[in-house]
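Predict structure. Input: Calpain catalytic domain-containing protein, 135 residues.
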Amino acid sequence: MNIQDPYLEKADPVPRTTKKAKNTAWLKPFEDSSFPAEDFSLFYSKRPFRRVRWLRPHKICSDPQFVVNDASRFDNQQGELGDCWLLAAMTNLTINTVLFKRIAPDDQSFDDGEYAGIFHFRFWQYGQWVDDVID
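Output follows.
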């Protein structure tokens, strides 16, 4: 499947925030000030039903991976946050690797020397590409 779409070409390869974070990663990993590691970031109007521990990927497993081989529709698992709409869209993106790499650029890694505590994603919203970074 080949998608010829002029809108795909409008997305900036790497946003400035990602470049800055990668250049300063040796100081400390990126932390998103608009989405702090606090309960209120996850639970807008409710209190969490149990204590939330915020961990970096290397604290969860010894060898975290962003994408192994190619992305597959079987890679996603819905958690407890009610994010099925996002996971459904991501699952459909795995059908077209060119489009998937435009949304989630493949030059991102957890490898030593590469990981800066930040991953870059692009979303098409209201007729334009929106860059978002996640720590």
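Helices lie at 16-23, 39-42, 57-60, 84-93, 97-103.
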